[in-house]
Amino acid sequence: MQDRTNRVEAHSVTELDALLSSSAASQQHVLLFFWAGWSEACRDMEPVLQAVEVEYGSALKVVGVEAEKATDVSLRYAVQAVPLCILVWQEKEVERVQGMDPIELQDKLASRLGASPIAEQGRAQKMSLDERLDMLVNQSPVMLFMKGSPDAPRCGFSQQAVQALRDAGCTAFGHFDILEDQEVRQGLKEKSQWPTYPQLYVKGELVGGCDIILEMSKDGSLAEEINK
Hints:
Helix content: 40-55%
Structural class: alpha/beta
Number of strands: 11
Radius of gyration: 28 Å
Shape: rod-shaped
Largest sheet: 5 strands, mixed
Strand order of the largest sheet: 1-3-2-4-5
């Protein structure tokens, strides 16, 4: 078990106390993982622990304890079954998760350590994408997110949307080729909760897709929407 990651193993109370003291001095949380080689549940926890080690980096030290061999450590923490995860801060137990429960473990880590750096980075990237999408939909009073360009549409629906805009008297409008940017393509679908392209925006607000554009073109409301 201990060969699967680079984490430290504590074989006795003496070794563990040295690790806890060092971590306390460096303001680092310690996650004790009590395991046994015969336990399938312990093996199933291994990917979870590896993810935790990557996510929290230097903020968290994971220490493995083979429960049936490091008996003095098991006695100290009253270990009755494995797997068992114990979170330690300043040499004191602060949280305990018994059994194979990765969701509870992640929740307790987040409550003590805050969101992991990777999660924070993901939120920052998401925020950055949201800001970019807001900028794009407001780039022009009339914005068409389409496949290709107005002069060279790359699907029939985009071609119909372009023609409908031109028929409504809108000959100069902004456009974005969603085939050129997968991040924008997927992100805008999620943001607008509209699953297909093209998508038409007027003054930053979603009007709709091809069917709605064609319906509005037919009843004359598209020109009104563009010029209001």
